[in-house]
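Regression test case RT-17, inverse folding.

Input:
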């Protein structure tokens, strides 16, 4: 369900009527070099209210002048551009307002749509005779365009008020009738979705994703943890198990998509922390000889709640596997966050090496204990000399730096034998064991199952 609050948040910054008019004042100030200030005023039956301003008139927002005793009012009534080269001697102006706003030269451009008067664009300077004939010609040429922009802003404000019951936060200086708020019908989910899909086509999907993620966080039973064995190829025993999240909620989405949606919704750290916490709860069920591997992105590692959860566990039995799909903006901060966990005995693995742009940066800057070869690099390594050469170079690099290689995605005995021949120490994949409960690991038809059965007791 798309709530009105979600809708308001989604489109509030996407299309803002006041921001649109503010750009008119700012760009006009840049265009007319002699101008010290620019304001947009909206007209009603009694006067003109300035709703936004630029330059020295930012503080003038909220000023209201009479329709019959001001130059802005005269412009609105006649629909004709009005100019005053010296407001101190011009009887047509609101002298008190001009003095208060430091307006000496003033040009008021009428803003209209058909026979409807919208208001005025008021351009001013603090000295007399500031504007040239060229300035006047430029403003005259732009009058139709500015009228369309301001008219569109007013229309959008009315529609938003009608559909959403929205007010314009932070705009208390503008009168309530500025956007002529209409009676607001009860908003429906279909209406909200329609409006959002027109103004921001991706917003409905983002909000749906956010609500799905929040439902998981509110009810953790919708997430289960499975474990995939990592085999020590030296003795064919289980050296570690990697904890992987699975989601019960519909529609079905792969775990990668769940976590991607969570990060796009600003809930990635929370979802990763939940998965880590649930995985750590299973650690007492593993024998001391079996290490628990947990996955986390750089943002989570630098989160205090995440670090507290990890430090509360026996870190010597943990491998923290850093996913590399998110750009790291601050490696010193990431290294510092990892330091306390590494000092307590936790080891670091770099995930998906060979699949993305940042894996090598991770390796060089984080000095991991384990380097994981990505499934794409392992798949077909028995028949592809290029894959074998790349894997061999990484094995050599790991040996030089004191790291160990873990090959992911091993799906055949042929691949496994090539990896053994290259000197790869650890491996995981469907050929060695699918992800499952700790109890299910005991059923592996593999020597590793003997160790897994101990883990499941």
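Golden output:
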């Amino acid at each position: 369900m798309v709530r009105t609050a979600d809708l308001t948040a989604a489109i509030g910054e996407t299309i803002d009527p006041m921001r649109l008019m503010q750009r008119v004042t700012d760009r006009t100030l840049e265009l007319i070099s002699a101008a010290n200030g620019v304001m947009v005023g909206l007209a009603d039956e009694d006067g003109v209210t300035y709703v936004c301003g630029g330059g020295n008139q930012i503080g003038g927002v909220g000023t209201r002048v009479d329709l019959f005793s001001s130059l802005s009012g005269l412009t609105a009534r006649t629909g004709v551009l009005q100019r005053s080269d010296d407001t101190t001697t011009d009887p047509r102006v609101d002298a008190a307002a001009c003095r208060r706003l430091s307006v000496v030269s003033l040009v008021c451009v009428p803003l209209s749509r058909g026979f409807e008067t919208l208001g005025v664009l008021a351009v001013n300077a603090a000295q007399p005779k500031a504007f040239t004939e060229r300035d006047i010609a430029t403003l005259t040429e732009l009058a139709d365009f500015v009228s369309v922009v301001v008219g569109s802003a007013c229309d959008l404000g009315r529609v938003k008020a009608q559909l959403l019951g929205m007010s314009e936060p932070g705009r208390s200086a503008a009168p309530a009738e500025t956007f002529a708020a209409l009676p607001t019908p009860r908003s429906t989910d279909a209406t909200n979705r329609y409006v959002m899909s027109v103004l921001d086509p991706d917003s409905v999907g983002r909000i749906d994703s956010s609500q799905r993620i929040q439902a998981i966080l509110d009810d953790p039973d919708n997430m289960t943890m499975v474990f995939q064995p990592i085999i020590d190829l030296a003795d064919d025993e289980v050296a570690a198990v990697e904890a992987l999240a699975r989601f019960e909620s519909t529609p079905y989405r792969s775990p990668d998509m769940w976590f991607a949606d969570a990060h796009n919704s600003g809930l990635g750290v929370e979802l990763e922390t939940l998965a880590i916490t649930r995985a750590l709860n299973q650690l007492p069920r593993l024998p001391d000889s079996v290490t628990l591997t947990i996955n986390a992105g750089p943002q989570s590692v630098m989160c205090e709640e995440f670090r507290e959860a990890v430090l509360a566990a026996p870190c010597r039995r943990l491998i923290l596997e850093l996913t590399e799909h998110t750009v790291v903006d601050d490696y010193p901060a990431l290294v510092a966050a990892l330091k306390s966990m590494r000092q307590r005995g936790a080891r670091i693995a770099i995930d998906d090496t060979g699949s993305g742009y940042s894996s090598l940066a991770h390796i060089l800057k984080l000095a991991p204990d384990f380097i994981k070869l990505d499934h794409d690099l392992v798949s077909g390594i028995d028949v592809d000399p290029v894959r074998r050469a790349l894997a061999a170079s990484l094995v050599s690099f790991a040996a030089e730096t004191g790291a160990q290689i873990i090959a992911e995605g091993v799906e055949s005995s042929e691949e496994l034998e090539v990896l053994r021949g290259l000197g790869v120490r650890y491996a995981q994949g469907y050929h060695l064991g699918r992800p499952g409960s700790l109890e299910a690991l005991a059923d592996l038809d593999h020597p590793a199952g003997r160790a897994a059965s101990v883990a499941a007791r």
